[in-house]
Hints:
- The protein has 399 residues and is mostly beta strands.
- The chain has helices at residues 18-27, 31-38, 42-48, 238-241, and strands at residues 56-62, 68-77, 85-87, 97-102, 105-109, 118-121, 128-130, 143-148, 159-164, 167-174, 179-187, 192-196, 199-204, 207-214, 217-223, 249-257, 260-268, 295-304, 310-315, 322-326, 329-333, 345-349, 358-363, 370-374, 388-395.
- The strands form six sheets. It has a five-stranded mixed beta sheet with strand order 21-20-22-23-24, with no helix packed on it.
- The model is unreliable at 5-10, 230-246, 270-292 and 379-386 (pLDDT under 50).
- Residues 94-354 form the KIB1-4 beta-propeller domain.
Amino acid sequence: MACGGGGRGGTGWSSLPADLLLAVFALLPSDADRSRFRAVCAAWAAAAAAWRPGPWLVGSRTDRAGRGGGAVSSFWLSPTPGAGLLPFAANVPAGLEYLSSSRGYLALSDPTASPKAIVLVNPVTGRRVRLPPIAFFKRWLDVTTVVLSADPAAAAEWAAVAVGFPTTCLAYYSSTTGAWARLDFRAQGYAGVEHYNGRFYVAFRSQICVCEVVGGDATAVIPLERADGADDGDGSDDEKLLPPCGRRVVETHLVDCGGQLLLVSVHDDVVYNSDDDMAGLAVDDEGISYAGDARAVEVHRVEWLGDGAVRLVRVADLGWNALFLGRNRAFALSPAEFPACRANCIYLVDRQGHPDGVVRVVDMESQWARREETICPDDGPRGSSSAGWARRGWFFPNY
């Protein structure tokens, strides 16, 4: 459909009122339709820009034996307050399993292929970018995170960092070389990665490192110097930043939130109070919370000092922001971007690798309060033991 032309009055498709175009756009049944809508002409694309997409929850299913089945399920966080997660059919190629997401792309792989490789797929536009195999990863099944520096469709040059578990090294990909480079980095757990202000940063617990890039090639992962100082009395040395006795860090994330870099640590062994308002969300059958399954979240802002060192400052309030955390990706949204998300809350994909679908909403004001939703990977009967989640995580579409 072209935007030109016009009737006797000289008007055409491009002259339709913006509010009418937006109303039509909101009624389109699929992302493919929305993508085609935006491509009609500049006027239609401008009208659609006012529409606020919502985050998706994407996961790969497992079979009865616990092996990846190469099938992807998708849910989107409804813009209707209280509606929770709703299943829908995303445009994901059949036979691929979910690994991670970044910049509007899903990082997928073919579980039957050898050697295994990452395929970047934009489920909105259908664009695919095939990356070469990572030969030096010993255990491919444990690849957990793939982070892009930019949209491959829009940037002349871009890069990617891939992380496995346990973290014995990182993989750095440059579009200019078309190859993966090995970067030594060891952590006994899940490392967080973020591309912030033109550089890749890696964190595990309270250690923050930067990927040193020379001439387009990454050469090393360099720890940043930590400066001690008074910052609200929370303590900036490693011992004070580690969780108290009986709690351990199970996930570490770096998140670009409103232009600030946040270090987010997820701890276990905290009992939540189940008396919080859970209206509008589907909860566990008996509404029971178990201490071993619970999580607490600590947030620190990375403060950049003049000499290149950093200091961690505790953040007790996210303001109008909300964080979406999964072991394979994390990002921040605000109600201005997506009105249905709860400000000053953390949407936590819990118990990664377990055959269930628990999503917790943790309020930063009182982490003893929570709301919870349990979903099934195939939207089948709740409590089904025939299939579970191999991996799952948050994804934000790029239109």
